[in-house]
Amino acid sequence: MKKYILAIDQGTSSTKTIIFDEQGQAAAKGCVDLKTDYFDNGFVEQNPEAIYQNVLDSVSECLKDFTQKGLNISDIISCGISNQRETFILWDENGKALAPAVVWACKRSIAVCTDLIEKGQNDFIKLKTGLLLDPYFSGTKLLWLLENDSELKQKVTQGEVYFGTVDCWLLYKLTNGTQFKTDYTNASRTLLFNIHTLDWDAEILEKWGLSNLNLPQPCPSSQDFGTINWSEILKLENTLSIPMTSLIGDSHAATFGEGCFEKGTAKVTLGTGSSIMMNIGDKAVLSQAGMLTTICWSTEDRVDYALEGAIVSCGSTIEWLKNELQLFSAPAETAAMATAINDNAGVYLIPAFSGLGAPHWQMSRKASIEGMTFGTTKNHIVRAALESIPYQIKDVVQAMEKDMQAALKSISVNGGMTQNQFVIHFLADLLGIPLNKQKNPDVSALGAAYLSGLKSGVYESISQLTEINKKQTEQVLVNVNNDLSTKGYQGWKEKIARF
């Protein structure tokens, strides 16, 4: 009998559901788009019930694909969830949402963060949570809600409000309110969780007036989170009642799916922005070089920590060149444009469209194109834009190595920009180590499946997962004769330092 795992990857714009087999191969897929409300004032929200229904629709589509291939749903052993991080939901004891889901990208709490920083709380928060006071994280947006809704604040004071990230909300709904739990990775992105004690921090909660907020039980990413009766929920003809055995934030799930199982291994997600996460082992190292410290992933007998650096503009820079400057009609053209010239001719694009993220945190900086002459062509500008992606990644990796006082062991890449051959070869040459690239593009779902399978017995060990990953990974090798990347990087550092 073959064994399968159902993995739900609940993202900001859609929910993907993938059923994986014992070899980490996708046997069936379903994907349903999710509506997000973007407002002029920088607010970003979703409908909590719509998120839940979106998951049900996606699971239904995936199961339909699975059965149409002649496969038997009774062979599905367990399920797991990876989810958009930092987005949170508030609800009452009946499971009714009390406010819209506030999405990770929402900027409503800028003034709250400024106020807390002025009160000297940034170091206090970093010491306990590994994070910085920033609107990106859940806690300050929660404070904004309570400042602007007196009725909701009263309910919190009276202990009537339940708080959870998307994983927690989905688990609560799928188990009819019997399971109120989250995992360490999602908890570690709220500004309310102590990454050293692995529990909610009573001092932060008291200081912020949240002591009576109902918070979920924090748990390892891989454990038994209760049984989901999919037959009843989805009105299936066949019986499908299986344990939920993993919950994990999507970027952490991708790190696990990429096989970052030991200290010094890292992954880079190259999407609209870029998330770089390095496994730093079983001890939390607080960064002195502009990184965040977070929980990487966990099982019932192991907790691994990570340093994380976020790059604001990656693929979005290329989209801007296409849409606003109309230098090309499709991003696929850019690799050929970049290689049509010998080098960048001293042209640099600093992609600070929304400031520069880690490790610089120059959030007031504006984007610029520097070093142009009358000899500059659109190919030079495109090449400068593409080069800015590896340069920013190198900045983050160097900062991580400085914090760890050790060199990077390996790095895996995923995301849409990995299709650009110029970018990934330039990155390999610049970092000086081969890049590991999974053949499976859905690494967040894969990570959730791996963690679920470890608990349910589909996979025996992390060592087995390492062997499975080797079979599904190709390498982008370093061209030792190419010194253009290192020469170009020196110019990049000079440009960054001028601000």
Can I get a quick summary?
This protein is of the alpha+beta class and 499 residues long.
Question: Could you name the key traits of this structure?
Answer:
alpha+beta; 24 strands; globular
Task: Describe the 3D structure.
There is one protein chain. The protein is 36% helix and 24% strand. The chain is of the alpha+beta class. The chain has a 7-stranded mixed beta sheet. Strands 3-2-1-6-15-14 form a 6-stranded mixed beta sheet, sandwiched between helices. The longest helix has 27 residues. It is built from 17 helices and 24 strands.
List the helices and strands and how they pair.
Elements: E1 4-10, E2 14-20, E3 26-33, E4 37-38, E5 44-46, H1 48-68, E6 76-83, E7 88-91, E8 101-102, H2 110-118, H3 122-129, H4 138-148, H5 150-157, E9 162-165, H6 166-174, E10 181-183, H7 184-187, E11 193-194, E12 199-200, H8 202-207, E13 217-219, E14 227-229, H9 230-234, E15 241-249, H10 250-257, E16 265-270, E17 274-281, E18 292-299, E19 302-311, H11 315-325, H12 334-339, E20 348-350, E21 368-370, H13 378-404, E22 410-414, H14 421-431, E23 435-438, H15 443-456, H16 462-471, E24 473-476, H17 484-497
Parallel strand pairs: 1-6, 6-15, 10-13, 16-22, 22-23
Antiparallel strand pairs: 1-2, 2-3, 4-5, 5-8, 7-9, 11-12, 14-15, 16-17, 17-19, 18-19, 20-21, 23-24
